[in-house]
Every structure is written in C-alpha cells, then in structure tokens.
Amino acid sequence: MTCAVSPLRLEELPAPGPASPALRLKRLPFGGRQVRLILSVLPLLFIGTWAALDWDAVRDGTARLASADPGLLFLAVVFTGLCSVSASFIRQGAIPERLPPGRLLASQFAAGAANHVLPAGLGAHAVTLRFLQARGIPLARATASLALYSLVKPVAKFALILVFLVAFPDTLPVRELLPTGETFLIIAGCAAGALVTVALVLKFVHPLRRPLMTFLGTALTDARLLHSRPSRVLALWGGAAALPLFQAATLAAVAASLGVPLPWTHVIFAHLAASAMVGAVPAPGGIGPVDAAMVFTLVVFGTPMALATATVIGYRVISGWLPLLPGALALSVLVRKKVL
Questions:
Q1: pLDDT computed for residue 45 by the predictor
Q2: 55 CB contacts (<8 Å, ≥6 apart)?
Q3: At what angle do helices 32-53 and 101-114 cross, to 10 degrees?
Q4: Is 86 within the bounds of a domain?
Q5: How far is residue 281's CA from residue 258's CA, in Å, rounded to a whole number?
Q6: Is 34 part of any domain?
Q7: Cβ 340 vs Cβ 130: under 8 Å
Q8: What predicted TM-score, i.e. pTM, was given to this entire model?
Q9: pLDDT of residue 333
Q10: Is residue 304 part of a domain?
Q11: Which residues span the domain enclosing 137?
Q12: At a CB cut-off of 8 Å and minimum separation 6, what does 160 contact?
C-alpha cells in the first residue's frame, strides 16, 4: 500500500524559530558592509607587509634618486601614469560594450596595486573581472576579454621588438642577448612540455572540454566582433603597443636622470627584450626576474653594473612603489562604492 505525499507549498512552510539556521544567518557578525570594509583595508595591509620585506630596496632606491635629475624623474612619473591609461584602452578594446572612462581608469590604477599582491597578473585580472561583472557583463564574456587582453600584449611587444631590430640593425647588440645552445634547448623543452601537458589534459580530463570549448567559442565570437569595429581595433592594438613603450620610456627617463651613457633607443629596447625574456615568470608585479633581466641587459649594452642596478632600483620605485599607494586607495574607494 502506497500513500501519496503532497509537496509542501511555500506558504505552508513553518516560520523559522529562534534557533533556526535562517535566523542564525541573519545574525552573523560580518555583514556586507563589514566585508567590504575588510576588503578595502586589505590593500593597505599588503603595502605595509611588502614594505617591511623589501625595505632595503626602497631605501637604497630613494637615496639614489635624490641625486638624479628631477625634471627627468618627473617625466618618468608621467610615463608611469600613462601606463594605466594605455591599459584602460586595451581593456576597452577587448570588450564590445562601452565602459565608463573614469571608472575604467580608476579600476586600472587599482588593478596596478593588486598586481603587486598576486603573481602573473592575477591581481589585475581579478580587479578587472569584478569591474566588468559589476557592469553586468556575463562571466564568460568578461573572462574572454581578459584572455584577449593577455594575448595582444605579448604579440604587440614582439612586434615592437621586430620594429626596433629593423630600424636599428647595426647599433643594437642583439647577439649578446640571444640564448646559447643549452639555454635555447631548455626554453624549447619547457614550451613543448607545456603544450603537451595542455593537450593531454584536454584529451583525458573530460569535464574540462565543454567549458573550455564554450570559452573558446565566446572568445572567438567577441574577437571577430571587436575587429569589425575600427574604434575597438585602435584601442586594443594601439593600447597594447603604447603600454610597453611607456614602461620602457619610464626606465629610459630614470636612466637619463642618473647619467647612464646609453641612448634612449637602447634603453627602451633593453626593457622590451628583458620583459619579453622573463615576463612570463610568475612573480608579483614582475619584481625579481624582470629586474634582474633589465640589469643584465643594461650591462650587456655597456652600462656599469652599479649604475645599471641603481637605474633598475629607481625604475622600480617610480613604476612600482610610487603608484602603489594611490592605487590601493583607489581600490579601497571602488570596493566601498560597490564599483568592484
């Protein structure tokens, strides 16, 4: 004998009692306002921690910059600010919807601060992803725009390197920067291993196929749409070309302020080459590997080791530390205003 059980309707559900889970959830000590307050304070805590761990570099770099040419240092600061403007152009060019320029620029200042906390650009991508989702853009399309952003940057950088090689074929000591046979084999082996790993994961890890194919379809559709709009193409590729140039110009301005005996073209190419060689190393803000590569490249180009080190320290102070506080404050304000 079976009995039919009629489903409970919503209005028939009993009201929660004093000890019910629903009521306990409402009495949690941390509400939305408290969580946002914590998130807005976290960037400042990260700054204090990072300053304590890297205080020697900040102190030495500041002391060396005190004897540099102030006009050229101000020019380096201007170039650093233009990096966030260029990043905003790339972000806008990577999404079909029109984004508010002011908030987009503020989000990129905040993304620059977050980028010093997480490696491989994850901090900047996380901030931008939250910004895009707050604008009502679906997760799949927002993620596709981040992938397009990450793709066009190295492509534009390598195009700039080729332009420099064609424009200055006899003045740039490129042969000293090329990897030797053993180093080249290691790099090629790592690249081949990464490709094989991705292929094996896609073949044998079946749950990843469908979301990956959906993501690729969305990314390709948006890329075709964006490249049918001249304004988006100009913003995307123009910003991708301007960003590494402004970063390299910051290094060149600092080098000139310290009296480095190299023309600007050499210093700019040194930055492009160094960031291209080790830019994929997952270090927060590129600190460490990129700095060492820039010192090595400047020394190869004829700069004394002490002067090359001072230049890179000064570059890091201006491009990394100087925008960090306003970027963290922008991040806090955007979180509190629910823009992120």
A1: 61
A2: none
A3: 50
A4: yes
A5: 28
A6: no
A7: yes
A8: 0.72
A9: 82
A10: yes
A11: 39-336
A12: 241, 244, 245, 272
- Measured in degrees and rounded to the nearest 5, phi and psi for residue 227 equal -80, 0
How far does CA 255 lie from the centroid of its chain? 24
Residue located via tokens 């905003």 = 88
Q: What is the pLDDT of residues 23-37, one digit of tens each?
A: 443 443 444 555 555
Alpha-carbon distance of 323 to 80, in angstroms, equals 8
Range scoring the smallest mean pLDDT among 117-121, 193-197, 198-202, 295-299: 117-121
Nearest to 215 by CA among 129, 145, 154, 149: 145
pLDDT of residue 275: 83
> Is residue 48 a contact partner of residue 201, using CB atoms and an 8 Å limit?
no
Separation of alpha carbons 257 and 314, rounded Å = 10
337 pLDDT band, cuts 50/70/90, is confident
How far is 253 from 235, CA to CA, in rounded Å? 25
Its sign, for the CA torsion 95, 99, 101, 105, is negative
Residue 31 falls within a domain, yes or no?
Answer: no
Domain count, the chain: 1
Give me the helix-helix angle, 55-65 and 32-53, nearest 10°.
70
| pLDDT score recorded for residue 173 | 65
- Which parts of the chain fold into alpha helices (H)? 21-26, 32-53, 55-65, 70-93, 101-114, 122-134, 139-167, 181-204, 209-226, 230-257, 264-278, 289-300, 305-316, 324-336
Give tens-digit pLDDT for 279-313. 555 545 555 677 888 888 888 888 888 888 888 88
- 285 with 53: CB under 8 angstroms? no
